[in-house]
């Protein structure tokens, strides 16, 4: 298909508009999120000054919101890089408008997830003791600790994801550079690394992106496997499960896709990118979400059934508390949110609309947060020696920090959309040349009709 | 987990005779005093944040009128295959060549992972800095460091007393023997329910008692190989 | 060797003694208490011997000090009472010495009376204020309206005070402990020709039958009997003893029993009687009383009493057989069941001991020499001192003119709350308490005493078959500007002059204690003195080795009188007089209430120690508060859940013959604990909490349960009946562990 100049300009205009214009919705969002973020920072500052006792953790529940949030955000990070990589590797053409907004999620979610292992420390200022270098006594950190593996896995994934986000950004940075003036031009010039769009450059880029996509998939899978091993390597009831690796990876992608759908819906609305992010994308991601909802259900079912059937007393206690005990309300909310609501919405074609997938995604996110909470807290509150059973209730500090991270994420995302095209311009254009998939036709009035094949 | 290298160092172990133990908790207070264990106050205690290196677990069995009560003193079991050790990212808790699960306070960064992976729930965390209202702090044992906020702590088998006992034996140019080392809890126990010594020495009291037909270990099936041996009640 | 001499306060003291040779670990390093500063090596531990003052048992302690600070108390390994062990309270002793809420200097009231506002003054001024007051009263002939009360039963304070008060023209009173075995035991002993308190050889017994005696927690001497219990269970070469506890609410002691018999409240004597009957009718008795006597209680067979005791006849019969057939059976009793029928149970339990013939036998009940009394009591005191039971205190001060009240080591405003009003009518109160307790708050003058670890004293150990004199000596210099009460009396006597001054010839309590011990040592243990003197190559210094050791010991003989009279005894004593409990049922108050002493907080004196406040109660895991124990089934019927706040209303019924006095109390609210091991018709709550003063750790924690035990019934304590209702589900319990059974059954 011919990629005529008008279409080209239109696309440039649409996709770079957020960089030029700033709407009130954006401003409000940024201000509100900044306030919440500041509240969280203040909460953390207070915690630094007083001690981690300002949280609700206790003996035996030594981890709760902190690690729940950690696992949750690392899970969200699987939206981007992994999905975009899989779609790239498998050559799914419809991916083109969504890769960047997915990849950005990864980087930001990792930035946030990675905070928790630091702020959850009893001595947060000493976080660097976890870094792999020998201390003044020549002692290295303990490589047998899954927390160390986390350190490497998350760092590797973050680095990889950053590169993977950055590489496809280069041509767009060059595009922005060409359109920008003044100091912006200098910055974008620096960032675009002298991109000229030569054949060699294009070739190298495509190659690099392909390689990164292949590399990043196992890294991403390993990250959440390792996060799951924080639990599975421990010997506590209902943690010590061989299935936790795949279960966590599936859960991560599940929540990641949900986050991606939500992000896309917001971007689509706020930046008027209805032409680019079309129902088909939501439909396809919705189908993916459906698959993962089923997979989640399968994993959860398998996990709980074996526990129940095995009837090992200490495991059974934890099991029972989730199914019918103190944690039952949360547990069943989780099941409803991860399966009962999203499954029919996503399975029924008519419901799998943009608003349908958004609703499903919202419940999935809630459900998946609860899932992480329910993996951590019931086990810890019911240790083997029953004399030591305890309970947990979050404090305002934990809640503020949790809410603050959501705000932080939105803030990062909002700022990102201000600085970089949230839809990969070149990739999108490239798609128009090769795509058998629908693309927007433009009528003179600028209205868009999505053509179905 | 930890490799047990053959060593001629003493291997410290404890035997607790549940038939003698009355649940009086003298050992608990003795440990608190000897090891500068903080009291956290009513408010923190209500949140489940007391610090206890040893506790007496009490279980009611049966229904009225056929009720029986069991007491069991539980401190760090100094597991040979300690689940708390490999998970610590900074080696703040590790195994010594004398069979102790050691805890280095100034290396601990407070991940609390060790506590989560201790099947015996014997680890206590310093959620806040603790205050000893003056002049209570005058009673601090100068041999034991006072822990600050954000670190994990637990029973050390009174390592300061072990060191003193070993030093004494060394001065006298001999191996350690029964009686050289008596942890605070063992020392105070009114019923003499606790024994402490070098289990690698077959002539020691703990070595002999550990072969009793009443000897059991707590949650032995986990393979943690505890160094605390319980002698069951009854004949 | 002379059997007994008197310790004279001016110096000479004596009693025969067998010394243990010094051996073992920390005591090797013991050095005398008062080391000159230049002998102190910084960073080196110095061990000092003294006596635990946390209860009356009189355990020997050694205190580890470094750089003038005491940092650990341990049991004195040589001491025959505790052999190196200490209880939880003993271990917490340093928190008395270093308690932040101590009264740090003498003070006089500055604000309104009872406003609790005081200003520091000098000791000279404090003593002058009191001396002037006393002189003024004496001048107008009202010397006898000055009263001194102390409950320091074992030390010298009461004696010195008595001397002073007598010379001044009034009295000092020693306040008896109430839940105390003494009154009940002396009641029992009065009916027998012995006067001494028995000692029970639990260690060697093979079957221990206890009627509510909490010998592992409170009772006569917790460590002594805990040590015995350990050996009772597992001494080498001995069969494992069997232990049966009869009590309506399982105590920590009962929790260690092999069998628990929850007899109806007040029916313990009946249980013992029924057991006695089985032993007799099956011919299992070693000593048999005459037939007429046996007849007198034939009606109380296990079959006939089962309904009254709520213990099945078969069970009684089985236990009676096991008991009598066991090698060395032993029966013991509590004293506090005084509230209901303790005297009867005491008599009947000891009757069982007579039946199975264990008196003065291995593993039996040991009755000791008749004149086993504290030598200090035989000082050259004109009239001896007066004892009063603590709950008679309100009447005492109401009955006689009282212009000045001096209170030492006794806290009536808390332990007899009803007194508070009367205390306020007394024009001048001087308190010697080391702490700002409820009584001190009402005082006009505070003359803070040293704590025991700063004091000099001679006292004796409770409940041993040996006679043990303990030394109390300072292990550190006084932490604050306090003064030992004995020295205050010396100063007062000097200030008053004349006859009063002459009554106390010594110049300080330190000198008295040192001289008493030294002269004792010279006379009775020359060998020890010589040996130690040689070691220290000093000129003969007998004080030093004695102070290193910290106690003296003297084996007492068993009382031979019993051997002759036992058969007679069995037949002559009327036992059935008060056997049937004064059963009192009240539909409105369906429960019996048991108020018991907290094992670690005691009567409340230890409630100011954070270590003990945060020590989980052994049975309920509760910390920092009080609670009401209630059977889970009963609770379910009343809709009460674990931790719910409940309100308990109590009436005290005193029954004397046909006369019933009923007193109602203000209801109180506290959290409930579902307690699996209590009769469904019984509620129980511990004493020790509910302070309104006494420092930051004690104040406003829980409720004062003792309000129920001192009724309007005056000097006879009655039965407590209670009703309970749920107030709210607000969980106020501070718990350490859960209340779950160990093995949780999970349905598949
Ligand atoms: N609430 C409550 N009341 C009770 C009981 C109970 O269990 N609970 N039990 C009853 C019984 S059995 C008894 S025996 C009586 C006991 O009655 P008391 O002996 O009056 O009770 P305590 O609370 O032990 O009071 C001792 C007081 O001595 C002071 N004191 C503490 N240490 C020192 C010291 O070193 N030197 C001096 N001079 N003073 C010191 C403190 O101020 C403390 O309040 O109480 C009876 N009343
Ligand atoms: N550790 C420690 N030891 C102490 C003391 C202390 O404070 N702490 N205090 C000392 C003093 S002052 C005293 S007076 C003694 C007190 O020591 P004890 O004489 O042992 O008295 P209590 O501790 O009150 O225990 C009495 C028991 O009797 C139960 N009881 C109450 N009424 C009845 C009844 O009608 N029938 C039966 N069967 N049981 C009943 C109560 O539930 C309780 O379990 O202890 C002394 N020893
Ligand atoms: S001190 Fe001895 S008897 Fe008391 S609880 Fe501890 S181990 Fe048991
Ligand atoms: S008992 Fe717990 S803390 Fe102690 S060595 Fe074993 S796992 Fe570690
Ligand atoms: S809390 Fe301290 S000792 Fe425990 S795992 Fe973390 S760093 Fe190691
Ligand atoms: S061995 Fe020492 S540290 Fe461990 S519980 Fe006993 S007293 Fe405490
Ligand atoms: S029994 Fe009494 S004297 Fe002995 S250690 Fe305990 S409180 Fe002190
Ligand atoms: Mo008492």
How many H/I helices of chain C?
A: 23
Kindly, what is the distance between the CA atoms of the first and last residues of chain B, rounded to a whole number of angstroms? 36 Å
The CATH class name of chain B reads Alpha Beta
CATH architecture assignment name of the largest domain in chain C? 3-Layer(aba) Sandwich
| β-sheet strand percentage of chain C | 15-25%
Number of domains of chain C: 4
Instruction: Give the overall silhouette of chain C.
Output: globular
Question: CATH top level of the largest domain in chain C?
Answer: Alpha Beta
Beta-strand fraction estimate of chain B:
15-25%
**CATH fold-level name of the largest domain in chain C:** Rossmann fold
Give the % helix of chain C: 25-40%
Q: What is the largest interface, and how many residues per chain? A: B-C, 60 and 79 residues
| Spatial strand sequence of the major β-sheet of chain C | 5-4-17-16-15-6-7-14
| Widest β-sheet, arrangement of strands of chain B | 8-1-10-9
Q: Please compute the radius of gyration of chain B using only Cα atoms.
A: 18 Å
Shape of chain B: globular
Short summary:
With 453 residues, chain A is mainly alpha-helical. Helix content of chain A is 68%, strand content 1%.
Walkthrough of the structure:
The complex is a heterotrimer of chains A (453), B (235) and C (748). Chain A has one domain. Helix content of chain A is 68%, strand content 1%. Chain A contains 18 helices and 2 strands. The radius of gyration of chain A is 23 Å and the shape is globular. Mean pLDDT of chain A is 89; it is low at 436-453. Chain B is an alpha+beta fold and 235 residues long. Chain B has helices at 26-34, 42-46, 84-87, 113-116, 159-171, 184-188, 205-209; strands at 12-17, 54-61, 68-75, 93-95, 101-103, 124-125, 152-153, 194-198, 215-216, 228-231. Chain C is α/β, with parallel strands linked by helices and 748 residues long. Helix content of chain C is 28%, strand content 19%. Chains A and C meet through helix 13 of A and loops of C. The structure holds ligand MGD (2 copies), iron/sulfur cluster (SF4) (5 copies) and molybdenum atom.
Topology diagram in text:
The complex is a heterotrimer of chains A (453), B (235) and C (748).
Chain A lengths: L4 H16 L3 H27 L14 H12 L4 H9 L9 H15 L2 H4 L26 H21 L2 H11 L2 H10 L7 H34 L11 H27 L8 H32 L2 H11 L4 H13 L1 H6 L6 H28 L14 H24 L5 H10 L6 E2 L5 E2 L4
Antiparallel strand pairs in A: 1-2
Helix pairs in contact in A: 2-17, 3-5, 3-11, 3-16, 4-5, 4-10, 5-7, 5-17, 7-10, 8-9, 10-11, 11-12, 11-16, 12-16, 14-16
Chain B lengths: L11 E6 L8 H9 L7 H5 L7 E8 L6 E8 L8 H4 L5 E3 L5 E3 L9 H4 L7 E2 L26 E2 L5 H13 L12 H5 L5 E5 L6 H5 L5 E2 L11 E4 L4
Parallel strand pairs in B: 1-10
Antiparallel strand pairs in B: 1-8, 2-3, 4-5, 6-7, 9-10
Chain C lengths: L45 E6 L8 E7 L2 E7 L12 H4 L2 H4 L9 E3 L8 E3 L2 H17 L6 E5 L6 H12 L2 E6 L4 H10 L8 E2 L6 E5 L10 H13 L7 E5 L5 H4 L3 E3 L6 H14 L9 H6 L5 H8 L3 H13 L3 E5 L8 H14 L9 E2 L19 E4 L3 H7 L4 E5 L3 H4 L4 H4 L4 E4 L13 E2 L10 E4 L5 E7 L12 H12 L1 H6 L5 H16 L1 H10 L7 H7 L1 E5 L5 H12 L18 E6 L13 H4 L14 E3 L1 H7 L6 E12 L2 E6 L3 E7 L7 E5 L32 E10 L20
Parallel strand pairs in C: 6-7, 6-15, 7-14, 9-10, 9-12, 10-11, 15-16, 16-17, 21-26, 22-25
Antiparallel strand pairs in C: 1-2, 2-3, 4-5, 4-17, 8-13, 18-19, 19-20, 21-27, 22-26, 23-24, 23-25, 23-27
Helix pairs in contact in C: 3-16, 4-16, 5-12, 8-10, 8-11, 8-12, 10-11, 19-20
One iron/sulfur cluster (SF4) binds next to helix 4 of chain B.
């Amino acid at each position: 298909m011919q990629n005529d100049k008008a279409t080209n300009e239109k696309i440039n205009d649409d996709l770079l508009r957020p960089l030029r214009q700033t709407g009130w919705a954006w401003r409000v969002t940024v201000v509100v999120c900044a306030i919440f973020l500041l509240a969280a920072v203040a909460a953390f500052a207070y915690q630094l000054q007083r001690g981690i006792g300002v949280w609700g953790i206790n003996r035996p529940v030594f981890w709760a919101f902190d690690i729940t949030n950690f696992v949750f955000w690392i899970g969200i990070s699987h939206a981007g890089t992994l999905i975009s990589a899989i779609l790239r590797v498998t050559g799914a053409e419809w991916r083109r408008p969504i890769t960047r907004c997915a990849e950005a999620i990864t980087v930001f979610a990792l930035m946030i997830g990675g905070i928790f292992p630091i702020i959850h420390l009893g001595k947060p200022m000493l976080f660097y003791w976890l870094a792999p270098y020998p201390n003044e006594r020549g002692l290295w950190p303990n490589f047998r600790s899954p927390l160390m593996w986390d350190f490497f896995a998350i760092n590797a994934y973050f680095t990889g994801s950053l590169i993977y986000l950055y590489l496809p950004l280069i041509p767009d940075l060059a595009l922005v550079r060409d359109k920008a003036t003044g100091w912006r031009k200098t910055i974008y010039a620096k960032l675009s690394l002298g991109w000229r769009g030569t054949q060699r450059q294009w070739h190298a880029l495509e190659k690099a992106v392909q390689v990164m996509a292949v590399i990043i998939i196992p890294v991403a899978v390993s990250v959440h496997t390792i996060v799951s091993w924080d639990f599975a390597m421990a010997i506590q009831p209902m943690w010590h499960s061989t299935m936790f690796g795949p279960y966590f990876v599936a859960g991560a992608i599940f929540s990641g896709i949900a986050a991606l759908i939500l992000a896309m819906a917001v971007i689509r609305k706020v930046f008027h990118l209805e032409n680019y992010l079309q129902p088909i994308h939501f439909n396809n991601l919705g189908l993916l979400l459906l698959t993962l909802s089923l997979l989640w259900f399968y994993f959860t079912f398998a996990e709980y059934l074996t526990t129940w059937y095995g009837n090992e007393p200490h495991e059974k206690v934890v099991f029972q508390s989730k199914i019918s005990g103190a944690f039952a309300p949360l547990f069943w909310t989780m099941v409803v949110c991860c399966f009962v609501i999203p499954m029919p919405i996503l399975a029924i074609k008519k419901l799998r609309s943009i608003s349908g997938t958004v609703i499903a995604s919202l419940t999935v996110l809630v459900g998946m947060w609860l899932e992480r909470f329910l993996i951590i807290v019931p086990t810890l509150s019911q240790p083997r020696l029953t004399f030591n059973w305890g309970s947990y209730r979050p404090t305002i500090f934990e809640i503020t920090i949790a809410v603050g991270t959501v705000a932080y994420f939105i803030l990062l995302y909002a700022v990102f959309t201000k600085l970089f095209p949230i839809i990969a311009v070149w990739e999108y254009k490239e798609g128009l040349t090769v795509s058998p998939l629908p693309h927007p036709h433009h009528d003179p009035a600028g209205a868009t009709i999505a053509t179905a094949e | 987990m930890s490799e047990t290298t053959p060593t001629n160092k003493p291997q410290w172990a404890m035997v607790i005779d549940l038939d003698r133990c009355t649940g009086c908790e003298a050992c608990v207070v003795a440990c608190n005093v000897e090891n500068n264990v903080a009291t956290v106050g009513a408010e923190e205690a209500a949140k489940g944040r007391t610090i206890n290196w040893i506790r007496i677990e009490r279980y009611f069995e049966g229904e009225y009128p056929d009720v029986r009560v069991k007491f069991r003193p539980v401190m760090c079991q100094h597991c040979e295959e300690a689940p708390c050790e490999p998970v610590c990212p900074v080696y703040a808790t590790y195994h010594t060549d004398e069979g102790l699960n050691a805890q280095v306070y100034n290396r601990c960064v407070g991940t609390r992972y060790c506590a989560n992976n201790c099947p015996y729930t014997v680890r206590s965390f310093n959620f806040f800095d603790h205050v000893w209202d003056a002049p209570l702090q005058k009673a601090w044992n100068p041999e034991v460091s006072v822990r600050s906020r954000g670190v994990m702590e637990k029973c050390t088998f009174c390592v300061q007393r072990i060191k003193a006992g070993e030093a004494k034996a060394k001065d006298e140019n001999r191996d350690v023997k029964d009686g050289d080392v008596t942890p605070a809890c063992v020392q105070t126990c009114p019923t003499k329910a606790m024994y402490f010594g070098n289990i690698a020495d077959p002539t020691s009291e703990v070595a002999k008692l550990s072969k009793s037909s009443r000897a059991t270990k707590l949650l032995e099936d986990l393979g943690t190989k505890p160094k605390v041996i319980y002698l069951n009640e009854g004949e | 060797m002379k059997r007994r001499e008197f310790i004279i306060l001016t110096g000479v003291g004596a009693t025969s003694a067998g010394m243990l040779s010094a051996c073992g670990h920390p005591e090797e390093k013991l050095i005398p208490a008062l080391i000159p500063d230049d002998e102190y090596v910084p960073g080196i531990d110095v061990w000092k011997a003294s006596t635990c003052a946390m209860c009356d048992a009189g355990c020997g302690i050694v205190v580890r000090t470094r750089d003038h600070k005491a940092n650990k108390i341990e049991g004195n390994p040589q001491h025959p009472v505790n052999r190196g062990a200490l209880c939880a309270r003993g271990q917490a002793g340093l928190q008395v010495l270093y308690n932040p809420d101590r009264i740090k200097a003498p003070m006089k009231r500055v604000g309104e009376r009872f406003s609790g506002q005081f200003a520091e003054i000098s000791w000279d001024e404090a003593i002058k204020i009191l001396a002037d007051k006393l002189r003024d009263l004496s001048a107008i002939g009202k010397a006898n309206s000055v009263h001194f009360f102390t409950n320091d039963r074992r030390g010298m304070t009461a004696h010195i005070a008595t001397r002073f008060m007598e010379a001044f023209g009034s009295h000092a009173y020693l306040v008896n402990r109430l839940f105390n075995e003494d009154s009940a035991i002396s009641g029992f002993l009065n009916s027998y020709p012995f006067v001494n308190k028995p000692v029970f050889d639990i260690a060697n017994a093979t079957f221990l039958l206890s009627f509510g005696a909490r010998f592992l927690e409170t009772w006569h001497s917790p460590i002594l009997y805990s040590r015995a219990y350990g050996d009772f269970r597992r001494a080498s070469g001995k069969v494992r003893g069997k232990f049966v506890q009869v009590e309506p609410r399982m105590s920590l002691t009962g929790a260690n029993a092999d069998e628990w018999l929850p007899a109806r409240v007040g029916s313990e004597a009946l249980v013992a009687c029924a057991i006695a009957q089985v032993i007799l009718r099956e011919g299992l008795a070693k000593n048999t009383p005459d037939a007429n006597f046996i007849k007198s209680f034939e009606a109380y067979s296990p079959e006939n009493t089962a309904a009254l005791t709520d213990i099945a006849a078969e069970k009684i019969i089985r236990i009676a057989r096991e008991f009598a057939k066991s090698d060395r059976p032993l029966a013991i009793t509590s004293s506090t069941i005084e509230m209901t029928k303790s005297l009867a149970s005491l008599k009947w339990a000891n009757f069982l001991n007579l039946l199975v013939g264990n008196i003065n036998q291995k593993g039996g009940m040991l009755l000791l020499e008749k004149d086993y009394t504290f030598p200090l009591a035989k000082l050259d005191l004109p009239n001896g001192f007066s004892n009063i039971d603590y709950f008679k205190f309100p009447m005492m001060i109401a009955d006689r003119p009282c212009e000045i009240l001096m209170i030492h080591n006794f806290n009536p405003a808390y332990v007899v709350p009803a007194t508070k009003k009367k205390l306020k009518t007394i024009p001048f109160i001087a308190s010697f308490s080391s702490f700002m307790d409820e009584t001190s708050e009402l005082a006009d003058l505070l003359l803070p005493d040293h704590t025991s670890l700063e004091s000099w004293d001679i006292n004796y150990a409770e409940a041993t078959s040996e006679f043990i004199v303990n030394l109390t000596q300072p292990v550190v210099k006084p932490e604050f500007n306090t003064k030992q009460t004995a020295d205050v009396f010396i100063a007062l006597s000097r200030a008053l002059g004349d006859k009063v001054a002459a009554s106390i010839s010594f110049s300080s309590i330190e000198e008295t204690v040192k001289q008493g011990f030294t002269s004792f040592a010279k006379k009775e243990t020359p060998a020890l003195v010589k040996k130690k003197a040689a070691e220290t190559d000093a000129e003969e210094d007998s004080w030093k080795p004695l102070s290193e050791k910290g106690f003296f010991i003297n084996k007492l003989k068993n009382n031979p009188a019993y051997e002759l009279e036992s058969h007679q005894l069995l037949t002559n004593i009327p036992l059935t007089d008060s056997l049937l409990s004064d059963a009192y049922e009240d539909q409105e108050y369906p429960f019996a209430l048991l108020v018991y002493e907290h094992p670690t907080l005691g009567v409340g004196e230890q409630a100011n120690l954070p270590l003990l406040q945060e020590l989980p109660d052994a049975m309920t895991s509760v910390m920092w508060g009080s609670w009401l124990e209630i059977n889970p089934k009963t609770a379910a019927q009343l809709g009460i859940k674990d931790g719910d706040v409940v309100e308990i209303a109590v009436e005290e019924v005193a029954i004397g013959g046909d006369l019933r006095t009923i007193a109602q109390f203000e209801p109180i609210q506290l959290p409930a604990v579902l307690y699996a091991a209590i009769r469904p018709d019984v509620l129980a709550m511990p004493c020790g909490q509910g302070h309104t003063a006494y420092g930051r750790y004690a104040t406003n924690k829980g409720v004062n349960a003792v309000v129920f035990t001192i009724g309007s019934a005056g000097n006879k304590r009655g039965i407590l009946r209670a009703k309970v209702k749920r107030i709210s589900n607000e969980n106020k319990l501070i718990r350490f562990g859960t209340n779950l059974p160990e093995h949780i059954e999970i349905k598949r």
